[in-house]
Design a protein that fits this description.
This protein is an alpha/beta fold. It has 15 helices and ten strands. Strand 9 and strand 10 form a beta hairpin. The structure holds iron/sulfur cluster. The site of iron/sulfur cluster (SF4) has 10 residues, from loops. Radical SAM enzyme that catalyzes the cyclization of dehypoxanthine futalosine (DHFL) into cyclic dehypoxanthine futalosine (CDHFL), a step in the biosynthesis of menaquinone (MK, vitamin K2).
Amino acid sequence: MTENADLQSVLDRAAAGGRITPEEALELYRSAPLHALGQAADAVRRRRYGSIAHIATYIIERNINYTNSCVTACKFCAFYAPPKSDKVWTRPLEDILRRCAETVELGGTQIMFQGGHHPDYGVEYYEEHFSAIKKAFPQLVIHSLGASEIEHMSRISGVSAEEAIRRIHAAGLDSFAGAGAELLPARPRTAIAPLKESGERWLEIMEIAHSLGVESTSTMLMGTGETNAERIEHLRMIRDVQDRTGGFRAFIPYTYQPENNHLKGRTQATIFEYLRMIAIARLFLDNVAHIQGSWLTVGKEAGQLSLHYGADDLGSVMLEENVVSSAGARHRSNRMELIDLIRKAGRVPAQRATTYEHLLVHDDPANDPVDDRVVSHISSTAIEGGTAHPELKLIDAG
Ligand code: SF4
């Protein structure tokens, strides 16, 4: 049997729903023809979604950044400021609540509370903020934070990770956004985030969360110098935990943005590598339901293509984003455009909830939403003066 025939038989097995090994995934990722890889991944997506496979989803959400003060100093990060720096800012609770109110007004259903590892913010800070948000806006889902924040806040408060998760869940956290996964294998993780917890610890905390009924998504930061084998190892680590917990709702790879950080000059992941990753994730992560395309970091056309390489979701209209835009992501969109992009990629668009239920299926263009204020903003803090819609009344961080 030739090498190509071997590759084809692995691809056929994966497309038919069979489990592939990490070694086989690496071989496919390296060597399978791009279109064949995409076709196999799309076959798996179609089988998984059956009668609703013609739909691709999006969500309306807002990232709310509560502080940029951070003791962890990841080398790829363009958002943080060291705690003693005069660039540090924190957002008062009333400002956070106003941003939540705007999110509700614009039809947003989810907030991502996102910030640095502030040296003074323990469990109590998050309890106070989440309970205030839930009290004022019970309809908003708090899909936020990740294992890194849990590790940090539990250390500040002197409690276990389990207690920290229980308490912030009781205060209002609905699910974890899976931030801080970056790259889970030790070598690339230490190279870009030497002060972050290990990949094993990140997964251990997610596993604790899942056992407490707090589900999460999982992410991967591509393109900071990691090898193909390390990318596949990242997927293996997630799949192994998922076999035990089933708590990862989605996998979201996104590409490193090279501006304003200490890794400047490293090679970014190409669109080609990104699409191969979307496809291999759909094939390898046979136990994760949703694979998300990220138009924000790879652009709209690559986002559309991802829907043909195994992705079933195109991310969000992000009413505010400050983190990846600080590092150079400049793609902007709005709800009407996102609906149009999905439709022109050959799918029926649907607005979804955090838990992926369809809230509104846009099956008739005549009934499309027309509110032109539902726009993805690159940020009130990432760019001097911001690009915020005036009606949103976003304020400068200063
Ligand atoms: S990625 Fe997060 S933890 Fe790392 S420096 Fe930036 S804000 Fe801090």
